[in-house]
């Protein structure tokens, strides 16, 4: 039975939320001040907290910050409930660590839907932690754990997104435009789930795929075209190919996907920059022993984050802020090695990153 803590200095607000949640079979405890809330949290850890912002002595922002600062309470989801409905207030609330924001006067059905969504996310995460613990006890935890945890993290987050939008569709059944918009979001999340599964299938392929003879200039052009088409990007990277139509033996579909993924990484490394502010270059050259070629994808973006430098080719390692990502580099290097090549990432002199594909000529 979920345990919910409701914190508000107005008793009538507390009772309204308490009765609604208890009718749904939840156990509800209440507090009328920030300090009382902190004491209750440490004494009887709740599954979720509904927290008012505007309270005397200690406001909701400060309470949330204190909860986030304590490892013992950091994982408890907090939903702000407040009369402050401005965009600035919402951003401030979410920045302190809250998972959601409800404005007063509270629509009790909407509040219940949001609470139930967060409880489902919490249950999914707890199942993930249980899975991680059992995997850690296995002999192959070092190998299996990385992939399995990444799968659980991505798919669980995507499922939570689907559940959240389904809840909104139910609440907005009388508003066709909103239903259509949220249905599109559900479809997009499902496509991301399918893409994760597709990438896992690619990762499982260990045999070397058949190759054909292809001119290098045609191969590079195909990778650029795929990058632009798949990601709806009009700007093409600056391409310098002094090797011209040099013939390479390659599996075209796989190689174009690799180029597209690396070009997208370079493009997205510039953050929120406008298209004309992004710099992505694609160059070719022979290696020193002339037995292979190198294809370099360079950007002037934010560079390789120190926290992922040692793990950037592991599955589901990513600095992107949306769910359903993290397999691109893993798949790219795996596919290249199956074709006899390799992939390396390094810091670009002057800032940014250089991805170097090394591919044999025989």
Automatic annotation (TrEMBL):
Histidine kinase domain ranges (all copies): 150-362
Response regulatory domain residues: 3-119
Catalytic reactions on record: ATP + protein L-histidine = ADP + protein N-phospho-L-histidine
Top-level EC class as recorded in UniProt: transferase
Protein keywords: DNA-binding, Kinase, Phosphoprotein, Transcription, Transcription regulation, Transferase, Two-component regulatory system
Keyword Transcription (UniProt): yes
The protein's Enzyme Commission number: 2.7.13.3
GO molecular function, one term: phosphorelay sensor kinase activity
Pfam families linked to this entry: HATPase_c, Response_reg
Gene3D superfamilies: 1.10.287.130, 3.40.50.2300, Histidine kinase-like ATPase, C-terminal domain
Post-translational modification 4-aspartylphosphate, affected residues: 52
Cited InterPro entries: CheY-like_superfamily, HATPase_C_sf, HATPase_dom, His_kinase_dom, HisK_dim/P_dom, HisK_dim/P_sf, Sig_transdc_His_kin-like_C, Sig_transdc_resp-reg_receiver
Superkingdom: Bacteria
Name of the molecule in the record: histidine kinase
Annotated source species: Termitidicoccus mucosus
Upper classification of the organism: Bacteria, Pseudomonadati, Verrucomicrobiota, Opitutia, Opitutales
